[in-house]
Specification:
The protein is mainly alpha-helical. The chain is built from nine helices and no strands.
Length: 230
Amino acid sequence: MPDTPAPTAPAPTPATAPTAPGEPAAKAPDASRRSERSRRAIYAAALDLVSEQGYARTTVEGIAARAGVGKQTIYRWWPTNSKGAVLLEAFLDLADQAGEAIGAEPGSEIPDTGDLAADLKFVLRAIVDEFTDPTYDRPSRALAAEGIVDPVLGAEFTAKLLEPQLALFARRIEAAQAAGQVDPEADPRIALELLVGPLHHRWLHRTLPLTHAYADSLVDHVLRGLLVRN
């Protein structure tokens, strides 16, 4: 009967490989950090591609290739309407980054310092900065154009991205009404549209320069019709 070879121990994996005396033990790769890097690479790839070639020509395969991930990663993380879902999440992340740049927490309300004019000017100036930043401007224009010809996409982005932002203005105006600063008969929705609508119009159509001075003048003009006069 032939001798049976003695079993050998399996080779250690990199995560469990022994280290020389005095050296720290090797750490296993952090999967959460790797996933976060991949997610941010996907966001950046999606925004870059839609800026370069428009929404219609942007594909999940193209996003995956640009981000350096497998397309199945995208389908796994965003199983429904993958391309639109990725772009929506990328835009929400972009909006959070813009808020962080001015010291706001994600999802935070418009500041209420008691000075409505100053608070509105602060936020409208931040919107001007977003619109004039190429990182935001190019993908926004591509999606705005696609939203015109694809009403489903347009409605989704309006409901999930634009309306929550507009609601912040409505609540700030309602707070000013409760404080007795704004005419109680004023419609908060119309009031906020008078503030935000002209910014969007000037940005979208490039009629005139979009500046902080223009944002300030919008607030001054609108509040002439809203504030309670003593």
